[in-house]
Write a structure and sequence with these properties.
Structural class: alpha/beta
Radius of gyration: 18 Å
Helix content: 25-40%
Order of helices and strands: HEHEHEEHEHEHHEE
Strand order of the largest sheet: 3-2-1-4-5-8-6-7
Strand content: 25-35%
Number of helices: 7
Shape: globular
Largest sheet: 8 strands, mixed
Number of strands: 8
C-alpha cells in the first residue's frame, strides 16, 4: 500500500497543481471515485466549487462522506444528471478514468465532456502509458499520439508531462516501503524516502513514465 501511495499522491499533486494553475471557479471531477481529489481541490482553493461524477454508488458514498456538508461540492452518477445551473465548467478532470471506458464508448464520453465545458475551457487528463503492462481492469493504455487520436476531434493539446519514472530508484524505494522484514514508520526515514522519490522518481519522460498528464483546450464547434 505504501509503495502504491507515493505514486498515487504524486499524481494527485501534479493534477491538483495543474488544475489550480488555470484559476477555475467551477470544476468537474469526472470519475471522481472516493472524492479524494475533489477534497484536495476544495482544501487548496476556498473559492472553487467542484462537481464529482462517478457511476459507482459506493464511490459516491465515500466522496460525500469525505466532503461532508460542503456547499462547494456536489455529486452525481452522470454528466446528464448535473443541473443546468452548474454548467458549463471551467475545467473537467479525468484522472485515471479513460482507460476504464470501452473504446467504442469513448467518443460519446468525449462529446459529453466537450458539451459540459465553457467555450474556452480545459480538459485535464491523466492516463497510464503503454510503458506498463495492461491491467485486467483497463481496456487500453495510452501514448501521447493515441490520446490525441481519442481527443483530437474536440480538443487541442496544450501541454503534457510524464509522472512516476520506471527504474532502479523506484524499485529500491518500493522494496524499502513494502517488504517482509521491516515496516517503515520512522519519520526521518519516511522524510528521506519522500525526498528521494521527488528527486529521482516523481518526474519522468516518454520512455519511462507510468502516467501521462495532459492539458487540452476545448475546440470551437
Amino acid at each position: 500500500m505504501l509503495r502504491w501511495s507515493y505514486e498515487y499522491l504524486a499524481l494527485v499533486e501534479k493534477v491538483t497543481k495543474t488544475v489550480l494553475s488555470l484559476s477555475p471557479k467551477l470544476i468537474l471531477d469526472f470519475g471522481c471515485g472516493d472524492g479524494y481529489l475533489t477534497l484536495r481541490l476544495l482544501h487548496l482553493n476556498e473559492h472553487v466549487k467542484v462537481v464529482g461524477v462517478d457511476i459507482s454508488d459506493r464511490a459516491l458514498m465515500f466522496a460525500r462522506a469525505f466532503c461532508g456538508d460542503s456547499e462547494r461540492a456536489a455529486f452525481y452518477h452522470s454528466i446528464g444528471e448535473i443541473p443546468q445551473n452548474l454548467l458549463p465548467f471551467d475545467v473537467v478532470i479525468a484522472m485515471e478514468v479513460l482507460e476504464h471506458i470501452p473504446p467504442d464508448d469513448l467518443p460519446n464520453v468525449v462529446e459529453q465532456v466537450w458539451k459540459a465545458l465553457r467555450h474556452d475551457g480545459w480538459f485535464v487528463v491523466s492516463v497510464p502509458t503503454t510503458n506498463i503492462a495492461l491491467s485486467p481492469k483497463h481496456y487500453q493504455h495510452f501514448s501521447l499520439n493515441s490520446l490525441q487520436t481519442v481527443l483530437g476531434g474536440r480538443f487541442i493539446l496544450l501541454t503534457y508531462e510524464y509522472v512516476h519514472r520506471i527504474g532502479l530508484a523506484s524499485k529500491l524505494i518500493g522494496r524499502v516501503l513494502a517488504n517482509r522484514f521491516v515496516i517503515v514508520n520512522n519519520k526521518f526515514l519516511l522524510s528521506l524516502l519522500t525526498k528521494l522519490y521527488r528527486s529521482l522518481v516523481m518526474t519522468a519522460n516518454e520512455r519511462n513514465g507510468v502516467h501521462l498528464l495532459a492539458v487540452f483546450r476545448r475546440k470551437e464547434d
